[in-house]
Amino acid sequence: MEKYVITGGNPLVGEVEIGGAKNAALAILAASIMTDETVTIENVPDVRDTNVMLQAMESIGVQIIRVDRHTYRINGSRIHNQVILNEGIKKIRASYYLIGALLGKYKNAEVPLPGGCNLGTRAIDQHIKGFRSLGASVNVRHGSVVAHAQSLKGSHIFMDKVSVGATINVIMAAVMAEGKTVIENAAKEPHVVDLANFLNSMGANIKGAGTDVIRINGVQSLHKTEYMIIPDQIEAGTYLMAAAATRGDITVKNVIPKHLECIYAKLSEIGCQVEESDDAVRVVATKRLGNTQVKTLPYPGFPTDMQPQMTVLLGIAQGISIVTESIFDNRFKYVDELTRMGSDIKVEGNTAIITGVERYSGAEIASPDLRAGAALVIAALTAEGESVVTDIQYIQRGYEDFHLKLKKLGGNIEIIDTPDEEESPKDAAFRSVVS
Ligand code: EPZ
User: Can you give the pTM of this predicted structure?
Assistant: First the structure.
């Protein structure tokens, strides 16, 4: 099993090129099958989640040509059925985007749902509510969502809560429905906007993406396009946090600074120097940082996917900080691992009360999920002594060349592969399902 071996203490200094946004890519790859013409997509990150999605698409007959590491040519004209049997697809949460794409194009879809997940409950009731509003019958049978419609008709849908996945899925189901669809209380994340822009480049008629009311006029069909995915705001934010935590100086390049504002505003508040230019943001930290309060919120609030990284940073800042997780009901599991490194954090429900310590100490720690794993790597890079980070397959789901980029910035990090220790079937099953 692969692990990271990290010796802390080096400030991270230099420039890092940010890749395509994983959470935009997963939606856009699924949506690319909604035309029978060929779609070219650039800036697809080479991470486990996108590769799992591509394999699932190929399993139903989608023709995929990999032009280069980050560019694909995709043609969905030969999809032979809408039943996804690919075992791997259960490993990613975003498998459900294939429901919206297949239902929107073929009015039929059967896609396995991922099992439990390590961020707490991950319901799909809002996705199902949206599909049913459009006229589909939707049932969950033998672990799969089965959706079917004679025809899909535009509808006025009020989301009961802000959901990135449900907003994206309903957009895909509605783009070729008859008539007008309105989605109220829609998610406004950059990847929702990217998906809408992608579909509009294929001839869809979507207005208002990025606001909480999205209006869609159904069209007859979609056509070919060439599209470049936006940069990953969370990958970029993770490296900015690493600069702050290691008292370093990092410039993230190929970014959209506007998408990072909610992240670097907090870093500036606790004492970092922040410089913004057209497609780059630089963070410099020369002294111990101060405390603050953070509450995760839907975009443009502080992103939940940056919550573990911020908690790690505040864990070695001066004073007492509060981090409140308002999106997921169990996203502080990594604090147990951070405690092993000497942190002083008390979790009360969905709030972490953080008393900053001078420095973490190296330890063996396990990644509970993608973002928490990246946060624990940051903790290890600042810690006194050596750390070993296990279960790094979670981190590799969403961070391309993570250890290589950190090494280039001066981090003392190596990847080693050791024979799998004995693990119980339960642990193996749990480990195989990711958020
Ligand atoms: C997306 O997950 C991202 N994943 C997550 O990133 C991200 O944390 C999340 O949005 C919030 O920004 C992808 O885009 C693949 P939600 P998603 O639907 O769509 C509840 C990462 O690290 N909810 O916005 O699943 C849900 O349980 C991952 O890249 C319902 O109750 O998130 C959660 O508490 C982790 N019913 C809240 O809403 C529903 O039908 C927000 O979930 C749907 C969601």
Answer: 0.95
